[in-house]
Structures are given as C-alpha cells and as structure tokens.
Specification:
The structure is a homodimer of 189-residue chains.
Chain A lengths: L2 H11 L4 H9 L11 H13 L3 E8 L2 E9 L1 H10 L8 E3 L1 H6 L7 H25 L7 H29 L20
The structure holds a DNA duplex (30 and 30 nucleotides).
Chain lengths: 189, 189
DNA sequence: CCTGAAATATATCAGTCCGATATAACGGCG
DNA sequence: CGCCGTTATATCGGACTGATATATTTCAGG
C-alpha cells in the first residue's frame, strides 16, 4: 500500500495537517492497522497537491506554529477509491520481540521473563489507548467491527502471555548452548 | 531489526542457503513473526562473509542448481547475541485488508463481505501451515510458547471473523457517501 | 514426447520508505 | 529564566522491498 493512498485515506475522514495524519496512525483509528512516517507523509502531501488530489490551506493558530491543513478533492476521492479496489496484500507482522524470544534458549531465564513482561505491557497499553479512543457503540458498524476485532486479538494476546508466563519461569536455566535445529521447510527431500 | 541480524538468526538454527533462509521466513519457524526479502538476504550474506560472521560452501546437487550453503561462525554468534540484547522495537502490524475494510462505507456490501471471506481464508491458511509445520509437543519450551501464542491469536481472529461476518451482510447498502468523520486524536483543544 | 508451469536457486536495481535529525515557536514547571 | 515537552514542517542518507533477469530441473497434461 502506497503512502499516498494512506494519506488520502486519512484525508477521507477529515481535513488534516501532516502532523495530524501521523497522529491518526500513531494513536488514532489506524493505530492497530497500519503505519506511516513523517519521512513519507510530507513528500506525499506535496505530491498530492501536484496531482490536485488535495488542496492546502495555511492556518494560523494562537500559541502554536502555523498549520498546513490539507483537504481531499473529488479527483483525490476517485483516486483513493480506485487504489483500494485492488486485492489487498496479505497482512505483514514484524515482531522483534517474538524473534528475539524465539532465541530464548540462548538468553538468561530472567531476561526472557522481563521480555515477556515488557510484551504484556506493550499490548496492555494498546488496549488502554483503544478504550480511551472511544466507545464502540458510537462507531459506524464497519468501524465497530474492526475496533472489536483488534481489541479481541489484543486481549487474547495479553491473556495468553499472562497465563503462560509462569511456564517460562520454571524453565531450567540454560547456558548459551545450541538447541536442536528448527525443522527445515522447503528442503523436503 | 537489521536484515543481517535476521539472517544470522536463521543461521543460528541451521546452515542454509539464501533461498532456504527465505523459506524459513516464508513458511518456516519465523513465518508469523517477521519477514525479509531476497533483495536483502543476498547482499546481507555477502556482508556476513566480509565480516567473517559466516562462511560459505558451494554444494552441488543432483537435479537442482548449485547451492551456496552458509554457516555461522563464533564471531557471528557473538554478534548475533549482542544484536538481540537490545530492547526490541514495538510490534509493527501492516494490514492493507483492515485499512481497506475501514472504508467499507464507501464499498458495496458484496465487496466488503468478499474481503472478509478472503481474510478468513488468509488466516486459515496460516493456521494450516503452522499445523503442518509440526506438533507443539516436539518443540523446545520457548518455541512451543511462541507457536501456541501465534496459533491462539490466529484462531481467535478466524473465530471473530466467522462470528461477526453476518453483521456486515445485514448492513444497509450504502452509496459512496461520506460517513461521520473519525474522532480526531492529538487535536485536543 | 513435447510444452509449459512450478519449484529451486542466485543476483541486481530502481524506487520507496523509515529513522534520525534540524529547525522553530510556545507553554508550563521549578 | 532556562529547560523540557508538545506542536509543527521538512529533509536526507541508508535500508529495504518488489520486480525482474537468468538458469536448471521436475512434473502434469495434452
């Protein structure tokens, strides 16, 4: 998914500045779904203006720096709808935590447990942020569907980690030794 | 997480060629956890040789192209352990599907439902691939922990989608109309 | 038996994206 | 009054992805 499409998506909901678009992906409705950085957003907004998919209006604020508020145009709306009518790419999960944890045999028991605790923290903060964001009853049906979907998964993750954390504390303390190799895949001969 | 670290991680488990490392992330033990592409792997393996973090041995095979099988060195093992002793970055989820689905109000009801069906399919294939990969009883404790964690989450996702799919089919068919904007975050004035 | 698709295998590269950094103005706090 | 955190825009090097090229072999189907 193109960063331009992500920006257009944000502007479909409301007029916003680059900073606000970032917030939408960091803490807002797209929080659990996708991400996009400043390094992409600002060049994209310029590109959107060039293509006339958005217009820009500089807003002076009292006590804050000036804002460039962008609005999507009809052409932008068409381009967005066109862009999201393709088959979506499969979900991409990137978890450094699970990757590192999978080498738990090479880490001290204490370290592994502290990693899991940090992981629980991370997901609980996610959940708290989602609850703060709003009550599902107020959402449109599709948004409620997605909101509950993410909340359910996060809750499941937290529950699993809390329940099975103990299993790791009872593990025998290991030296840095190589355990049996993981089964090979795509080597089926 | 550096692509070099990801490659070293793969080589921690077993000697492997670039192609096999890819498989490890595509279908294997890292399947649900992280990803890395050929475009990163091959340059990384060259870099690993330069740093003497891995050695390479060209293997002739009958009925297949030659393979360059890489092995991690002691220096490589140290570098890897060093690399994974940093605080892991938070999980990064990128779901084009959920992003598109969140604009369901602008899509036809039929399209939305077909997207959800495709989504269910995706996660069921994940689950099937994991089951095929091996029985949790055979895994070391840490690997079982992670395996079950991923399986539990995938199962939860599938269950939720199947249970709530119906809600979307009973939605009133909408024209391409703008629904109420999502609540702003970080705009608290 | 021949063709073409799929799998195995390595490699490169253009374009894109991220993360860090720079800049700046303001509020609040001790 | 200096310092930190927040709001706000912008840029840039380096890293990564996705597509593409190349080559060989197996296997299903006509």
């Amino acid at each position: 998914m193109d960063a331009k499409t992500l920006c257009l998506g944000a502007l479909m909901h409301r007029d916003a500045s680059g900073y606000e678009i970032r917030k939408l992906f960091e803490d807002g409705p797209f929080n659990a779904i996708h991400d996009v950085s400043f390094g992409s957003i600002y060049p994209c907004l310029t590109a959107l203006l060039e293509r006339e998919w958005a217009t820009c209006c500089i807003t002076e604020q009292d006590g804050r720096p000036d804002k460039k508020v962008y609005s999507i145009t009809d052409a932008g709306r068409s381009a967005f709808l066109e862009a999201i009518s393709t088959t979506p790419a499969p979900d991409k999960m990137r978890s450094e935590m699970l990757f590192i944890l999978s080498f738990g045999d090479h880490l001290s028991r204490g370290h592994v447990v502290s990693l899991v605790d940090r992981y629980i923290d991370e997901y609980e903060q996610h959940l708290a942020a989602m609850q703060e964001y709003g009550a599902p009853e107020d959402f449109a049906p599709v948004h409620r569907f997605i909101h509950e979907f993410c909340a359910t998964i996060y809750q499941t993750a937290v529950d699993y980690l809390k329940q099975h954390r103990a299993e790791l504390t009872t593990l025998p303390e290991t030296e840095d030794e190589i355990t049996r190799p993981l089964k090979a895949v795509g080597d089926g001969r």
